[in-house]
TrEMBL record:
Substrate binds at residue 201. GO terms for cellular component: plasma membrane. It is found in: Cell membrane. It comes from Virgibacillus phasianinus. Pathway: Cell wall biogenesis; lipoteichoic acid biosynthesis. GO terms for molecular function: metal ion binding. This is Glycerol phosphate lipoteichoic acid synthase. The lineage of its organism: Bacteria, Bacillati, Bacillota, Bacilli, Bacillales. It is a multi-pass membrane protein. Belongs to the LTA synthase family. Keywords: Cell membrane, Manganese, Membrane, Metal-binding, Transmembrane, Transmembrane helix. The active site is at residue 84.
Amino acid sequence: DSSDITEVENYTKNKYAEPNKELFGVAEGKNVIKIHLESFQSFLIDYKLHGEEVTPFLNSLVHDESKNFTYFDNFFHQTAQGKTADAELIMDTSLYPLPQGAAFVTKGNNTYQALPAILGQSKEDYTSAVFHGDNKSFWNRDEIYKEFGVDRFFDSSYYDMNEENVINYGLKDKPFFKQSIPMLESLEEPFYAHMMTLTNHHPYLISPDEASIEPANTGDPSVDRYFQTARYLDESLKQFFDDLKEAGLYKDSVIMIYGDHYGISENHNQAMKQITGEKITDFKHTQLQRVPFFIKIPGVDGKGVDHEYSGQVDVMPTLLHLLGINSQDYIQFGTDMFSKGHKDYVVFRDGDYITPEYTVVGGQFFDNDTGEKIEPTEKMKEKQKTVRHELELSDEVLYGDLLRFYTPNENWEDVDTSQFSYGKNSH
Ligand code: GP9
Ligand code: MN
């Protein structure tokens, strides 16, 4: 009931980190373009296969001399069984995913105070849109997006899905980005646009004429092809950036790029040993849960590589502060990545977590420098309790639909789901 939400509120308000004053509001009213890199793990960045860069375009953003982007190399996905849907949930609500199933499906009719609605109710009156070349009902998106306050959902019904354009789950990334440009241009500004790619998805299928790098040769077919679909994704991004520039939508937009979850599961540790040159221990496997996070803020020089430890849950408060919106009003488990008070422990769904100094795997503690098992100090045990408590509180929010009982501020209006309908033919 409503007393439970008070406990959660006390916790999250206490965890809250004040914005970095230099950055608060610097991107007020700017368009936001958030790009989802399907199944993309950070080990691909700067990785060389057969002596070639796999992702030259993304690498160029990391090493960008013109300092457009900041790249977080200690950013982690926090997803569980809901995979893509969990990543979307975490990034747009700053809640943790559920221990079982996908909240997108089982909690698709909960009340949320999610980014699309918050930006839509801000004084800048953002238009929110999701772009994805798959059927609108996959992962129950067409239901939960209404609760999130997503104004427009450009699903596969908006795209030319002819046979040549489609592989695996849906639209190939190159035609996806190409065809998205006019839709993006049609949106009322400012907009919050979420571009969701798909081709770099297990089992990493690509037609031979579109593969521009040879597969790896571990003998594990999906691992071997992973580099080819990642290269294709990288090329599609380059094309998208060129098209954004041509459309005049690049320079003045906030652009965020993130990886949703791992692409190579622990079932492929043998192949990954060949790829990384190291035995994939449980400790090492946790290190591989890094996914990229890039951000470009108009008018602010990128920092190159930022080594701050952070996770998907931290993105929402970070963005709100850049846009000049006070995030303290909302129930959020993450903290602003640019804040001096950013909390640099990253919680995983199973109760494990990682800090700049040590990693907890299966409840056991490992030193980050040596990878050796260590005895936890009292402080470390305390932190472990905090992590578990946070997960419990987040679960209470979702299982109890507790945001029903929460009003962020006096201006907040409950999301009216009847305003939204998705799919080309319903407009
Ligand atoms: C499907 C796509 C894939 O629409 O988002 O989801 P995943 O299998 O990665 O969860
Ligand atoms: Mn995914």
